[in-house]
Amino acid sequence: MGTDYQSLSFEYQRCNEQQESQEQPGITHPVVVVGAGPVGLATAIDLAQQGIEVVLVDDDCILSSGSRAICFSKRSLDIFDRLGCGQRMVDKGVRWNVGKVFLQDNMVYSFDLLPESGHQRPAFINLQQYYVEGFLLDRALQLPNLEIRWKNKVVGLEQDSDGVSLTIDTPDGTYTLRARYVVAADGSRSPVRNLMGLDSKGRIFKDRFLIADVKMEAEFPTERWFWFDPPFHPNQSVLLHRQPDNVWRIDFQLGWDADPVLEKTPERVIPRVQALLGRDAKFELEWVSVYTFSCLRMDKFRHGSVLFAGDSAHGVSPFGARGANSGIQDAENLAWKLAAVLKGQAPDALLDSYAQEREYAADENIRNSTRSTDFITPKSAISRVFRDAVLRLAAQHPFARQLVNSGRLSVPAVLHDSALNTPDRDDFSGNMVPGAPCVDAPLQENAEPGWLLPQLGQEFTALLFCDAKNLHPCIDKAMQAIAAAELPVRLVAVVSDMADAAVLTTVPGVRILHDADGVAAKRYDAQPGTCYLIRPDQHVVARWRNPDRSDMRDALRRALCADAAT
Amino acid sequence: MALNTHANLARPDDFYEALIEMHQGLDDAQSQAVNAQLILLLANHIGDYATLCEAMDYARAASMGSKIGAT
Question: Does residue B49 sit within a domain?
Fold first, then answer.
C-alpha cells in the first residue's frame, strides 16, 4: 500500500524568526512562496533546484482534501520530470489519450490527443490532486534549501523598495517574515490578493455541477467520456473519467436552480450514479462536491515584489483541465526568472516578462474554457439552437465534429509575442517557433534509448543538430559562441548518423545524442548546423541555421532583458 | 461539385464564437432574420444549385428522428 496522502497532517514548528528577540529584525529571505498547493510546491522546488533558498508557508497542515484537479497534461508531466517527480506521477496515474463524445445514446465523435508516437509522456494522466501534492511534497522534503512552515497564515503585507514584510499568524502568535520576493500561490480566494486590495475579474457562469467520485470495479475503458443529453440524465451533460485506485470521476451538470446543499446528500447522489451505472452496480462514494465556476483573472500578475501564480491570478472552468495545468506552467515560467534575478544574472525587469507571458497564456486558457462552457451550457436560445444543430449534424458529417466543444484540453501556450524571443532571421517551417515549448523526440545515448526533453531546461541549453562527418567543427563553433555568452549555456548535440560511434562519445562537456529515427530533426525542422537556444523552462527562445559567434550572446542578453534599465 | 462535409474551417472555435456573437442583443425574430440573411449570403457564395440542394437535404434530414432541441 502507498501512503494515504489525504490522512497526512504536518506539524507546526517554531521557526527562526520566532526565536529572535523582538528588537532584532529577521533576515530577508530571497523568496517566500505562499500556499503549498501544486503551484506553490512546484515553484518552491524549482527555485530550490536552482540554488535559491525558499520559505514555503501554508495556512493549513494537510494536503488537498478530495480528488479536486485530476487531469494532468503532458506539459505538466514534462515539468514534473524536470522537478524530479514525474516518474512517480506517471507510475501512479492513469494514462489516457482518447476522448469520446456522445449525444443521447450515440457516439458522435472520438478524438486522440496524442495521435503520434515518439513522446516519452502521454497526453494526459489522471491523478488525484492529493497524490500530485504528496509526490511534490516528498520531492520538496529532499531539498535542504527549501523550508516548509505549516500553520503559517499570512495576515498582513507591506511592500517597500527592498521587498516585502509579511505578518504571519501561527499557533504561537504573529511574527514578521521578510522576503525580497513573494510568490502568491494561495488559491482562488487568495488572502494575499485580498490583503493588497486587488481582485480577479471576469465572468461568473450560472450553472451548477455535481462531482461524484465513486470507487468501483468497472469495465469502462480508460477514456474521457462526455455525454450531451444522455437518457440517464436528460437535458444535461455528464462526464466520466477514470482515476487511480478504481476511483471514477462522474461530473453531472445540474443547472442553476439545483440546491447545492441538497444535491450533495447521498440520497440525491446515489440515484444519479445508479442511473448511469445500473441499479445493481456496486460502488462507494469517495468524494462529493457541488460547484459553480467563473472565468476570471487579475489585470496584472505582478505587483512590485509580489507575483501571483495559479488560481490566485486566474480562474477557468474545469472543462479543458486548464486550471492546475496552467498554474504549474506559471510556476515554471516564474522560477527560473526569479532565480536569474536573485543571482544577479538578469535585471528585475525580467520578472515583468513573467507577468506578460502568463497573462497572455491565461487569456488563451480563459478563451478556450469560456467557449467550452458556452457550448456545454448555451447562454441564449439561439446559442442552444446552434449547439443542438452542431450535435445533430456531427453524427453524420465530419465537419461538425470539430465544432463540438466538450472541453479543449490543456495545451501550453506558444509565447509568440514574448519580448524575450529573438525573431527568426532564417527560414524555418514547423511548430518549434521562438516562444514554443519544446516537443519531445526519441534519442539514443551510447546506444541506449532515451528522450530529448530530459536533456533540456533547468539552465539555458544550446540544442545543436549536426551530422557525424562535421561533428567536431560544428561543436567547436558552437562552443565558441557559448563562450562569448555571459552565462553558462549547456550544449546538447543531436547527431543524425553515427558513422563512428567511438569518436562521438568523447567530447568533454557535451551531451551527444543520436537521432536514429530522424524524428528530432523532423520536429525541429533541423539541418546540419541548425542550433536552437532553449530557455530553462524548455521554451525555444532563438534558432539559427548557422549561428554567428555573436548570435548566442545577443539572444541570451535579450532572453534575460539584460539591456533593460535596472 | 459535391458538398464538402469534411473539416474545412480554418479556425473552427473562432468561427463558432463569432457566429453566436453575431446574435448578441437580438430578439428571436431578429435572430431568425439574421440567420436567413446569412444563409442567403453563403448560398450565393457557393453558387452551384446541386450543391445547395444537397446541403438542404442534409440539413432537413438531421432534424428528422432526433428529439434533441424538440420542445
Answer: yes
